[in-house]
Every structure is written in C-alpha cells, then in structure tokens.
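If you are new to this repository, start here. Below is one unmodified record pulled from the training split, so you can see the exact layout before writing a loader.
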Amino acid sequence: MANFQSQLARERQTIKERIERINQSLRQIDYNPGRYIELEAQTSPDPEIRDFQSELRACTEGSLTGSEDAQYSEVKFLQVKAIIERFRGREGQTDLDRRWTRKVADVRNGFVFAAAERWREDGKEYEHYTDSGGKSGGQKEKLAYTVLAASLAYQFGLELHEKAGAVNSRTFRFVVIDEAFGRGSDESARFGLELFQRLNLQLLIVTPLQKIHIIEPYVANVGFVHNADGRESLLRNLTIAEYRAEKAAHGK
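And here is the target side for that same chain:
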C-alpha cells in the first residue's frame, strides 16, 4: 500500500513538472501586449478524491516504524482491507466501485486547472480564468491556441521565435486542426496561426470556406472539397499561387 501511495505521489509530481515546463513556453508568448498566461494546477475539492487520499495516508501512517501492538495492527489491516475491497468491487456495488476506482486512481482527477494572465513586467495577476464561461468565442479560441502552442512546444522540445522560419528545421511536426477558426474572431485566428508559424509546424487546417482569407497568408497549398449531391466528394488541390491567380481572374 505504501508503494502504491508513493507511485501516485510520483505521478502527481510529474503532472506538476509538466505544467511548469509548459509554463516556461507560455512565458515566451505575448497573450496580450505585455502579458502572458500561466497555468495553475490546483488540488481538486472533490470529496471522494479527498477522502480516498486521506484513507490512503491513514493506511501507511506509522507503518514504516512498525508496532507490535495487536490492536494497532488490526486497525491497519482493516483500513487496507476496506480500500482493496472497493478496488475489487463489493457485492451489489460493483459498478459503483468500478467508477470510484477509475476516478480516485487516476491522478489527473486530483487536479483542477486554471489560468492566470500576468503582467510580464512584475508577474502580477491581471485576470484569472477558472473556466471559459463568460468569454467570447474569440477569447476562448485565443486562450486555447495559446495553451496548445505551449503544449506543442513542450511535446516537441521546440523554441518559439520572434519571426516565422527563424530556424530551418527538417524535423516532422505535423498538426491537424479540424473545424478550425469557424466560430472565433479573425483576430484570434491570426493569433493562433502566428503562434503555429513561429513553432515551424506543418499544419493541415480543415476550415469553412469563409475563413480562407485568414488562412491564405500562412499556407502553401489549398484543397477544395466539393460534394454536389451528398454522395461523392471531389478534392481539388491548388498551390497558393494558383489559388491567387484564379481568384484574381474571377475578380475576387
């Protein structure tokens, strides 16, 4: 039981370390002029998770020093037995215990995540985001793109650069973004594309046609998908130069 508790503690620490690594990337991104975003991993207030962690600690408290007291040993045995029985699934409560086990044994559920927008000058908090409620579509997208870019930087070990193409890398960094930029503002879409370009990512963007004017400066090829009768889809590939030539010929 002590080893199990130690393993959960190591996994919780890994999450905290990864959040800090992502925050190192986030500090390189101007979320707004003079401000950056910082992720926060806070302890979950969920009573089931809190009670489980308390029960787990109770099982191991004093166990390393040991005790010859029979009553003490019996108490520890019953504490461990209660947890193991729930892991196995008690008679008549198998489904409930299975759900409980998945919940408390997944260390990710032990955190709730928030984001703080801070001034670069002194690190003071400008705004705190516990969720995206009350934010416009563009604001939600901008926050999501910022965290996504920082996460990709962490995942691939990338550096953000002031200008796109600052580093000519031959590594494969392929990212697919489906239903992109359809609901957000043009400003947030440009913000996200600028971030991805600074990471030298290879992007495949699936987006409604009305957003093509936003994406055009950032792509090398365009693929138009057309489905006339709902039975067969046709794909036409154009380089961005061919697309611009056709657009100019049609006066658009």
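Two things worth knowing about this chain: Helices lie at 2-26, 47-60, 70-88, 94-105, 137-156, 186-198, 212-215, 240-249. The CA atoms of residues 17 and 226 lie 46 Å apart.
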